[in-house]
Amino acid sequence: MDPRRAGGRGVTTDRIITRNWGNPDVFHVDGYVANGGYAGLKKALAMAPEDVIELVKGSGLRGRGGAGFPTGVKWSFVPQDTGKPTYVVCNFDESEPGTFNNRELVDREPHQLLEGLAIAAYAVRCHNAYIYVRGEFLHQGTIVRRAVEEAYDRGFLGKGICGSDFDLDVVPHRGAGAYICGEETGLLNSLEGFRGQPRQRPPFPAVEGLYASPTVINNVETLCNVPHILENGADWFRGFGTAKSPGTKVFSVSGKVERPGNYEVPMGTPFRVLLEEHAGGVLGGKALKAWTPGGSSTPMLTAEHLDVGLDFESLQAAGSLLGTGAAIVLDETDCVVEAARRLLAFYAHESCGKCTPCREGTWWAVRVLSRIEEGLGRPEDLPIMNDLGRNILFRAFCPLADGAVSPITSTLTYFREEYEAHVREGRCPFTGSGPGRRIEEVAS
Ligand SMILES: Cc1cc2nc3c(=O)[nH]c(=O)nc-3n(C[C@H](O)[C@H](O)[C@H](O)COP(=O)(O)O)c2cc1C
Given 106, 149, 217, 231, which is the most exposed site by the fewest CB atoms within 10 A? Predict the structure, then answer.
């Protein structure tokens, strides 16, 4: 039998964590339980914590928050002999442009996240967990708070959860409204009440994280997979996706497509399938120009990469990254210089200011990109952009700046001619913006 069809909770398709989308009952705890919810937690509580870690390790689940670190391995790094409490923090900051799958996972089935969080906490012997909710997610903050209350009421959180001797408190925490608060050490600072800026590593959070204690930080989507692994086993999970990137991924697709939205597909699915079969193809039947596989901080790819598999290894081999699994699609009428300028403006705004390459570099990049887009570019601006990219990449304090470089280097690689046309013609060939006509004026 297809291992996927052996799964519990009626999993008979390639969807694991979105299989209940369309069933509004699972929003509340009773409907969630009626559909098999919290069975994974009960199974975990009957196991030794170390065995839960081994099972998750064996499944090959890798973090869905961007870095793709193996989840079970991360949990196994947590020392148990420090005499300090251990914390688990769910990263629900989700600020990467183009990414909106965490939000919908919580919108539709918040208890799936709580169940995964409780299993993670049990595995690393944590009794105090936090959910760091992006500041702007006012509605989702309320959903999380109410779901936590429901879980307490039904004994899935609190003292002796599910009749076991394991206690777990979960505190939802509204974030500070900054992209950098999604970076795990910036998040910890913010959670402690300090300015959201990254911390020096090492020490890594697993050893010295929240309140200088061992801390596991996991993304919403990562945690949502955990109950299903507990319930159905590591081999079942490995029945989805590729050998090195097992499981599925919920891809957020936005931009110039017919049906923007979140689509869960097995890892390794070619981008063409995601774009054409799920998202309905490029809007208005236009030609695909460029797309980001993993949100704005991953290098753009082009129509030549339509058949690249959406998994960690294939995307890296193609010169990009899986990141958060967010495809922003540009069509033939879009100007990549303008796209790069807009994205860089985001990074310049969100740079926390702690280190010079990021703070100054992103600001300069916006200036140079703006003048090119406005038709005031100079031939030497292209080498300047290249230099800027080289001097930021891997030279900043945290990876925010590395992400900021992606739109610059990838558009310069694939669309250099377009930059040159801007400089040569003294205007944007797409928007028509030129000297004295700012882009915003042209657009309005
Ligand atoms: C600038 C920046 C922003 C980030 N934002 C997020 C975020 O919003 N959500 C998230 O889960 N991870 C984010 N990350 C990655 C986290 O630092 C961390 O790797 C992740 O939460 C770990 O969870 P995972 O192992 O389950 O993927 C960000 C990283 C950087 C450098």
Answer: 149
Rounded to the nearest integer, the mean pLDDT of the chain is 94
Q: Nearest C-alpha to atom 2 of ligand 1 is from which residue?
A: 183
d(CA 80, CA 125): 8
Domains and CATH numbers, the chain: 3-238 (3.40.50.11540), 248-331 (3.10.20.600), 338-443 (1.20.1440.230)
What is the distance between the alpha carbons of residues 322 and 131, in angstroms, rounded to a whole number? Answer: 24
Tokens describing residue 3: 């291992």
Cα(219) to ligand 1 centroid in Å equals 7
pTM over 0.85: yes
To test the ligand 1 pocket, which listed residue (173, 219, 249, 349) has its Cβ within 8 A of the most ligand atoms? 219
Pick the residue whose CA is nearest to atom 28 on ligand 1. 183
Q: Hey, what's the torsion of the CAs at 54, 57, 61, 63, to 10 degrees? A: 110
| Ligand 1 near 68 CB (within 6 A) | no
Q: Which residues contact 123 (CB under 8 A, 6 or more apart)?
A: 44, 49, 52, 53, 56, 75
Ligand 1 centroid vs 298 CA: distance in angstroms?
13
| CB contact burial 219-246 (16+ within 10 A = b; e otherwise) | bbbbbbbbbbbbbbbbebbbbbbbeebb
